[in-house]
Amino acid sequence: MSNLSCEKVSAPEFFSLLFLSVLSTVFMYISSPQIPLAQTDAALRPFVFIAVSLAAGVPSFLICNLMRKNEEKGLVLKETTTYRVAYSVFGIVYFIAALKTILRFDLFASSELFPGNDMSIFLIAIVIACGALSTVGLSALCRGSVIFCFIVIGATAFVMLSLADELKLLNFTPVFQNGIGTFAKDSLLFAVQATEIGAVTLFLPQIKGEFKKHYIAFVTLSGGAFFAIFLFVIGSLGTFADTQLFPTYTAVTLANFGLLERIDALETAIWILCVVVKISFYIFITVQSLSKLLPRVPKRIITIAVCTALAVIPAVISNNIEAFGFVSNNALTLLLYLVSVVTLPCVLLVYYRKVRPYEKIEEDI
Question: Rounded CA gap, 259 and 11, in Å?
Fold first, then answer.
């Protein structure tokens, strides 16, 4: 059977993994300085995320229907050349996405956690840990993510509760103060940060249960979580958020609960956990996808090669402002989203419908 992985996972487990991955996006999100957005409008970004993500899920819904019908007929997909090439492109996309995530975390750590320090050794350690985690398999990653989800949600809710006294209604501005066009452009750039949504198409054969229902729930709950986080960030910082590179972190530093101080240390640990899950997932996708193009190369060797590249490249370009800016820019993020979430799923949908590259299950045993 032509799957990225033979492991089966339940839909709630898989989307728990995806939720942790997209959550790291809002924690380390950097607004575009070229798009001046009013505070209340920034809090409304998640609603555009929900609309865009639901629309992007349509090809996966249709592919899921095709697969379910063919499974009933005893048919599975064959690993044709087109299949291998398409999945290899996914691998390249998620390698670049992993690189962008590492560089974004490098910027966050070097500017907020350890200002002025060289983060090379720390980043290498993160990549090694993520590479090791990526080898445990999809099932283990998803099961672990369910537990991590409860920890992350609980810790984030606690921080929000601690920030309640800092909220000020005067920090909120009229809706669409800078125009609907500006709001739409900024919100679209925020929505396309969720490149991992394209992975849904890759793992459809492995997802058990009601895929469409859980996908809609995942998108809706993610948008709701983003909205709550932005609401607290804007309510506590107001226009001061515009001057901060990572406003979410700045807001968290204001949190305190009774005698407990430095709650930001707890939330930062949670963020690092989300980043580790995200990078591990990206490495797993990259290795599994590239192994389709290089079936004779052991996955262990591909994993080592991918992790080596992810460790070396940031060390080389992290101090190069032009190179770092290229890897971190919104145009590249938009391109990765269009390729992985829009183009490839649509191409595969047409391919599955027109070419019908199926075979009997008995022939694959």
Answer: 41
